[in-house]
Each structure stands twice: as structure tokens, then as C-alpha cells.
What does this fold into?
Amino acid sequence: MTEPRAALRPARRPRGRLWIALCLALGFTGAGQMPIFKRYYLADLPGMGWTADYLLLHTLHLALATVFLVWAGAALGAWLVRREALTALGGWRAAAVAALALTGLARALKNLPDVWLAPGVVMAVDWAHLALALAFGALGLAALVRGTGYVR
Ligand code: HEM
It folds into this structure.
């Protein structure tokens, strides 16, 4: 017998699965910008040649990031209306989403031709975005194991 929708663990609901897929795709296209897929031979596997195309991954990352920002913004709007209590992990995950959005936007800003940021700031934002991506993945994994969502 299939479980009723409300009884499904958050990550097993269709929306939860789509959010996970979006975040994994962001992690993949982000990691591809370092760029490591050609160096570590992923791009040599059959059908994976496109992973060596830095500009394609960069464009994909920004397109997915736009969806991520709209989705996170809508979730924030819904939360401001409903004010549901966050789970402990949910609070940390929401903070990671906000910080990823801010550092990601700062990275996109830095790439604009007329914008100049001090080298130290660029490096700090770069490392922060990467560290946050890793932390967000670890928090997501912990939530998946525990079966908890963002809200109680
Ligand atoms: C789940 C969310 C996200 C994940 C897991 C993620 C992951 C990554 C990773 C691993 C990198 C490469 C490491 C680095 O250079 O720091 C990267 C780079 C980047 N990300 Fe994200 N990211 C996310 C969201 C965003 C958002 C919301 C934006 C906003 C526009 C963004 C914009 C960028 C930019 C501009 C770069 C670097 C491009 C360059 O080097 O020129 N990311 N991301």
C-alpha cells in the first residue's frame, strides 16, 4: 500500500526530491567550474565530454542558481506568512541556503566587467561559497538520515 503524501518523509515528497536534484546539480556544475572534470578524467568517460566545457557548466550553474534563488525566496515568503517552527537542522540548513545565495551573488557580481573587489574579499567569498556548499551537502545528508525537514 502506498503511504499518504503527508506521511512521506520530506525528502521523499516530489517537491523534496526536486529540491535535492536542484542542489545536487548546483554542486555538480559548481564543482565543474574549479575546473576538475577534465583533470580527473571524468570528461574522458563516454558521453561525459560536455563536463570539460567550462562555459557550459558556468552558464548552467547560473541558470540553476536563478531557480534556486526564486525557490528559496518563495519558501522564505511562505515561512514569513506561516511562521512554522524550524527544526534544529532546518535552521542551520536555511542559514546555509541564505549564505550560499549571498556568496553566490557576490561571486556573480565580481564577474561583471565594471565591478572591482579587493583580492582578499574575492578569495574569502570564493572559499566561503565552496565551504558552504560542502557544509550544506553534509547538513542535507544528516537531515536525510534523520528523516527531518526544514520545519517541524
Ligand atoms: C546549493 C547551492 C549552490 C551550490 C552547492 C554551489 C556550489 C558551487 C561550487 C562548488 C562552486 C565552485 C567553487 C567556487 O568557485 O567557490 C561554485 C561557484 C560559483 N557559484 Fe555556486 N553554488 C550554489 C549556489 C549558487 C548561487 C545561488 C549563485 C548565485 C548566483 C552561485 C554562483 C556561483 C558563481 C558565480 C560561481 C563561480 C563562478 C566563477 O568562478 O567565475 N552559486 N558554486
